[in-house]
């Protein structure tokens, strides 16, 4: 048997190559304001700007910054105008009033009721009521109130506003130090909006506000919050039975709903 010739072993082949790139710099902590502005998509957004408490602990817990945002629009979609707006925003408006700041109210469907506001701790002398009806007048008055940055809160009813107009209001609101509430009909829920916070709110029996948060800076929130909200003027005179009206009234299964040209429901007539 012929033996194979021996092969002289060469130098060993290196199992890895040296990385000649310079090492990455050590991570440095971001400034506190920058860190507060960083938002991770799976977390509830935090804001470095001022917020005002909603007065509802359950709602504060689900909002970025734990309250109504300043420097941004809050769009509230409702079925019937003048039914829940004041109850939803009363805690923030009371805080604004106590600080001696004015409250701009633009185009409300009904005249504000000073005695009712006083029962909620809101000084009616701080109310700047702008009585306008036409859509372009409402929009112009809203823009001026936001740009002036002179009020502690702005409430405006804009049932007929386009997406590009909402975007312009959001740009203006980014420089306003007050919360800006825009009330629109619930039927526009499927439309896009530049408002960073969008809520859909309805009134249920037993003095509750049912709130759905379908746009916020954070993960989606599919649950419905049920917030107890009894008007201030009724709290002291309400009996235990009246705290639960659903137990006293008979529901009517079939109703005819008339809607106004503004998109807000106005009348509910049983038949």
Can you offer a commentary on this structure?
It is a single chain. The protein is α/β, with parallel strands linked by helices and 271 residues long. Helix content is 22%, strand content 22%. It is built from seven helices and twelve strands. It has helices at residues 32-37, 57-60, 85-98, 114-119, 135-148, 163-173, 232-235; strands at 51-52, 68-69, 73-78, 103-106, 127-130, 153-157, 180-185, 197-204, 208-215, 225-228, 255-259, 265-270. Helix 6 links the parallel strand 6 (153-157) and strand 7 (180-185). Helix 5 packs parallel to helix 6 (163-173). The longest helix is centred in the middle third of the chain and has 14 residues, at 85-98. The radius of gyration is 28 Å and the shape is globular. The mean pLDDT is 85.
Write the layout of secondary structure elements.
Layout: H1 32-37, E1 51-52, H2 57-60, E2 68-69, E3 73-78, H3 85-98, E4 103-106, H4 114-119, E5 127-130, H5 135-148, E6 153-157, H6 163-173, E7 180-185, E8 197-204, E9 208-215, E10 225-228, H7 232-235, E11 255-259, E12 265-270
Helix pairs in contact: 5-6
